[in-house]
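Could you join me in thinking about how sequence relates to backbone shape in a protein? We need material for that, and I hope you will provide a protein of your own picking. Label the sequence line and the structure token line clearly, so we can match residues to local backbone shapes. Would you write everything just below, so we can both look at the same thing?
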Amino acid sequence: MTSAVPSFELLPGAAESPVILHVPHSAREIPPEVRAGIVLDDSALERELDHIVDAHTAELAAEAAKASRVTPWRFVNRLSRLVVDPERFPDEREEMLAVGMGAVYTRTTHKEPLRPADTDAEPLVERYFRPYARAMTDAVADRLAVTGRAVIIDVHSYPTAPLPYELHGGGPRPAVCLGTDSFHTPPALLAAAREAFAPCGETALDSPFSGTYVPLEFYGGDPRVSALMVEIRRDTYMAEPGGPVGSGLTRLVRALAALVDAVSS
């Protein structure tokens, strides 16, 4: 049996917009055939989803898109990152393999077994990871063809207190962490983000999470593709872990829309 839930969705924006809001970790959905390979019982799985899901980030992106002067495109993962994590390298380049969290996770946020250690990742990579990567590559290529550039804004959240799986959890945990790439994050994009998110509290670079997502076809080679990861500390807009959204979301919507407007012009 296969799931009828779409793996991902590209939501069109304005034809002239170069911006793609990428939302990879907001969903909780796990197809039954994938759930069968996860060793957690139902209550433990729900607790793990509470910790690992970037809750309400799809809503944040949707509201910011509506508030922007030039509507950005949105690429949204509709399945949980416990199916596959589309932002990992699918090979030995991925540093999160050290804690069982490559493209297909075998360990939880608390380093407990999620799948058997000898799980063959290839079927899940083939079924879910590669189609996602191809579709995101096509979305970026389309923005390049139409507008001459593409700006990927990666929308994430992270917990107030570090979780055991974090490799770099000992550094600052600002209200907004801006993840950068030395090739794909130009100074003007970073400056626009700092200005846009200033009303939301302290911002810092690459702590506790660093880097940003660019499809491998363009990564490190095409300067027309710029990218920034926006990591929002969860206590600023929701009840942790996995709880309801709070009033702070409105401020973040305004900030993200301001960033979209700044880089769209």
The beta strands are 8-11, 19-23, 73-77, 150-158, 176-179, 203-205, 225-233. The chain has one domain: 8-264.
